[in-house]
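2 proteins. here.
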Amino acid sequence: MSNTDSGRGPSPPFPPVPGPYPLRPGTVPVAAPLPLSAQAASPAVPRPVPVAVRPVPVPVSQPVSSGVAPAARPIPVAPRPVPVSVVPTGNVPVVKEDADDGETPDPTARAARAAPPWLVSLVVHMVLVIILALLTIPLLNKNQVEITAQYAEELGEQLIDDNLQSPESLDMDVKIPELSFDTLPTDSPLAAPPELDISLLDANKATDDIPAPSIGLALSGREAGSKKALLAAYGGNATTEEAVRRGLEWLARQQMKDGGWSLTGPYPDGASIDNRLSATAMALLAFQGNGQTHLVGDFKNEVKRGWDFLLKMQNPDGYFEHDSAAHHRLYAQAQATIALCEIYGMTKDEKFKRPAQLALNFAHKAQSPEGGWRYEPQIDSDTSVTGWYVMALQSGLMAGLEVQSPALDKINQFLDRCGHENQSKYAYKPGMEATLTMTAEGLLCRQYLGWKHEDERMRQGIEFVLANPIDYADQNVYYWYYATQACHHMDGEHWNRWNAVMRQAIPEAQLKTGNDRGSWAPSGDRWGPHGGRLYTTCLSIYMLEVYYRHLPIYKWRLQ
C-alpha cells in the first residue's frame, strides 16, 4: 500500500484526539478551577507538574470579590495528571495519551508506532502474498498429468543411465578399447584369447611374470562397462537403450512354457509357417546381444530356459532336428550356431563348448561345392543363407573354437560370382541382378573375410547403401539389419550418416502401448508375412544393439 492516496497528499500518521476545547498554537488544555466552596474545603495539595514538550505557563482565574479579605491564592485541584505528548498534525499540535500510567512502553510497540507507514504497508503485503502463494501452489499441481513424447534427435546429448557421468565419458574417442590387463596387440580382433595352463596349486607361481594374452574384443562390448563407453562413442543414447529394453521385455512375455519361442504366436501378426528353432535362436541372440546370459542379467532365467529347450534339439552330428519347412531349415541351423558360439564365447561355460563345436563342424560339412549354403546341405548356394553362415563361422572364431580356413576361402569364390560393378554390388545368386539387400549382406561378408577399409570396391558399395537409408514407407528390415552392421564397421562419416536416421526411425516405429508394446509390426515389410512379428522385432533389436553388439572391425584390425 502506498503512503499516498490517489493524489490527495500524505495521510496523517494518527487520527486527531477529540475534545471540547479548541486549541491555539503553543498552548495545552488545563482543567477548569473549582468553585470557592470546593476550594476552601479542599486540603492543600502539591501543585501537579504537567508533562509537555516544553514548559507552558498555566493561567489562573482571578478571585471573586466578596468584601472579605482574600485568602491565600487558591491552587486548582485537578484530576490525576495524565502524561501527554504533542504530535504535530499540520500546524496544530494534537494531544495523545501515552501507554499505561507509570509503565515503561514496550520497545517493540514503540518501534512499530515510529515506523514509516510505507514500511508497515510493505510488510503486511509481503505476508499476504506469501500466504496466498502457499494456498495456491498445491491447487496448481493437483491432478495434473503431462506426457511428452520425444525421440533421440530431439533430446540431444543424454545420459546413458541414471548415474551422472563426467563430460569426458560422454565425449569419448575410443581408439583402443582394451581391457586394463590387455597390453599386447592381437592378430585378429575376432579371435579369442589363448588359453593358458596356469596352476593355482603352487603359490610361488602366483607372482610369475607371465605376459597377458592378447584379447579378442569382438564380444567384449556387451559387458556393462564397455557398453556405456561404446554407446557414447558411437551415437547410442537413452532412447535407443530404452527401445532395446522394451523389446526384450516383449520377448520375455512371449516365451512359451517349454522355454522356446514360436514364429506364429501367441502374439498377433505371426508368420505363416512356424519354425521353433529359428524363433528361439533369434530371441536368444537378442538377449545375448544386450549382454544377457544364463549367468548374469535381468533376463537370465529366460535365457537359461531358452537354452534348455534348444540344446535338446541337437543330434550327435551337430544338426538341430525340428519340424519346419525345408527351405527354412538351414537358415535356422545357422542362427542357432551363431547363438551357441556367442553364449560360449561370452561365458566360457563348458556345457556349451562341445555343442558349439559340433554345430561348426556341421556347417563345414553342409557347405556346397560352390562355396556357399542354401536350403539343403551341400546343394546349391545363395547370398542370403550364406551370409548367416559367414556370421556363424566368425562367431566360432570369436569364441576360440575351430574354424577351417578352406571354408572361408570358398565363400570368397562364391561371392565373386555374385558380384556386380567391380564387386561393389551383389545379387542373390550368380547371374541375377544386384539388389540393395544382397549388396548390404555381401559387403558385410567381405568385411569379415578380410577386405580393407580403404578398398575402393567397399567404399563404392557403402555409398550405394547410404543413398538408400531407412524409410518405413518402403519397409525392409532384413536389408536394414545388414546395412546397419556394414556401415557400423566402416565407422566415421559413413556410420554417422546411417546412424542419424537409424537411431531416430527404429525407436519411433516401436509400439508404445497395448499388449504388444515393445514389438515392431511386420505389416508393410517386404518379408513380414514370412517372419512375422517376432522376426521384425528381433532384427530391430539387433540394429539398436549395434553400438556394442560387435566391435567395429576396422578400428582394431591390423592393416
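next one coming up
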Amino acid sequence: MNENDKLTIPVRFFAQAEKYADRPFLAFVGEQALTYEEVARRVRKLMAFLQRNGIGPGDRVAILGSNSPNWVITYLAITSSGAVAVPLLPDFHAGEIARFLEHAGARMLFVGDAHFNKVKDLAFSLVRVSLDDFSLHDEGTPYDEVVPLEAYPSVQEDDLAVIIYTSGTTGRSKGVMLTHRNLVFDALMSKKIHPIGEKDVFLSILPLSHTYENTIGMMIPLLSGSEIRYLKRPPTPAVLLPALREVRPTVMLTVPLIIEKIHKKQVLPALTGKRLMRTLYRLPPLRRVLNRMAGKKLLKTFGGRLHFYGIGGAKLNESVERFLLEARFPYAVGYGLTETSPLVAGFGPHDQRLQSTGRPIHGIEVKIHDPDPATGEGEIWVKGPNVMKGYYKEPDLTREVLTEEGWFRTGDLGLFDEDGYLYIKGRLKNVIIGPGGENIYPEDIESVINTLWYVDESLVIEEKGKLVALVRLNLEEIEKKFRELKESAAELYEKNVETFLKEVKEHVNRQVNRFSRIQEVKLQMEPFVKTATNKIKRFLYGGKGPEGDDLRHAGRQV
C-alpha cells in the first residue's frame, strides 16, 4: 500500500494540508479563518508540546470543551502523535468526567477555561492544559516549537485513535474504542452519499465529542478541503439566526429535535394560523404548493446556499419529513452508532425516501438477524471496517455485542424494503410486548403525541401492564394561545392541563392500532434528561435503572 493511501488521520490530514494549503479551514463565526497550512503548523507545534511532556503512542489524552478551532487542532495533534484522544461531552457532570478520566487512564487533559471548575479538584494526578490558549494551567507555559514529522512513530491503521464515552439512553456509559481505519474509512464512505468539496462551508452546532459531528462534521470536510465555522455560544435562535445570515452555510448537521421545533413553532403556524388556510392545507394538492412556498422561505432563513442538511441521532417525525419532502428542502438522513464510527446507512438530498434511513454505505455488510417471517423485522447486524475494536476494559460487554465472525449487534430493530433501503423500527430494549405478543414501538407513539401544538416532548413506557405516556406541556405556547383570557400563566396552565392531557390520549388512540393505544397520560413537570443528540435517557423513566433502582418519575395522570 502506498503510504498516502493509508487510512490514518495524520496521513490524510497532512496530505490535505499540503493540497489545500491556502484554503480556509477553521474559524469561529465572525473571525478570520485559519488556513489548512496554518492549522497544520499549529498541529505540529502541539505535537511537539505533547512529546516534550512525555506523551507518546498509546497514551490517553482527554479533551473537554466546546467546539472551537483549538478543539480540532488538539484532536489532530493527539491522534497524529499516535496517542489516543478521549473526547468528553461538555454536558457531563464533574463526577462523570472524573470517572471517565480515571477509567481511561488519561495522562493529560485539554480543558476549556469555562469547564475548568469541573476538573480542578480531581483526586488523581493529571496534567491540565488550557484548550483556549494551550498554556499549562499550573505553569502558564505556551507551546512554541516544531518537531519534524519523521521524528514521530508511524501511526498504523489498526492503532487505537479514540475512546469515546457514550451518553446513552439505557444507562451505563461505555468507552467505545475506534481505530484510525474505523474513522477514516467511515468518513470516506459517507462522503460518497453526497458530493462535498473545497467550496463548501460547514456550520457546526453539534458537539465534536460526539461521533456524529466528529466524523461527518469534522473528518468529511477535512477530507474535502472544506471550511468549518463554529459558534462561540450555544445555538439558540438569537445566536444561530445571525450566524446563518453571515456564514450562509452549504452544509449543516443537526438532530431531529431542531427541525421538528422549527416546523412546529414557525412553519405550521404560518401555514395553518387562519381558518381558511387550515382548510386549504388539508387538501393534498394545495398542501404541496404551500409546503413548496414555505420551503423556499426556510431555505432563505438558512442562508440560501444550503445543499445538504443532515439529520441523525434519532428518528425524524413522519409529518415533518413529509413537509421537508414536499418543500424540496435538501435534507438527508443517516443511521449509525458510536460503535460503527458512526454511519451505517444514509441517503442524500437526491435520494430521499420517507421514513427510511437509506442504503448501507459502501464497503460494509448489514443484515437483519432472525427476521420475523410476517414482518421482516429483526435486529440489525453490521460488519465492516467501521465496526469498533471493542469497549475499553470491558471484554465481557464486548463479547455480548461482537460475534466471533465480526458482526456487531446494534440492538436496533429494522427491515429492508425491496430496493435495499433500511427502515428503523426502534431499539430492541425499548420494544413493549402487547397482550397478544404484538411489538409496540414507543417511538412511533411519541411521534404522534409530539405533533400536538401544546406538547413539548413525550415518552411512552409500560407501567404495571399498561401503556403510559409521560407528557411535558409547552407553557409558553399555551400562554400565547390563550393570552386574551388575561390570566396568569400558572392559572392558565392549571385550569387547562387536565383538558390537554385528556386530548392527548384521545388524539393518540384515534391514530394508532388497537394494541398501541395508551391507557394513561401523566404530566411530566421537569424537562426530560437527554443525551448529547437530544434523545431522552429512557432508563430514568421507564423502569429499572443501571443499578436496579426504580427510577420512574411520577406525575399527574388521566
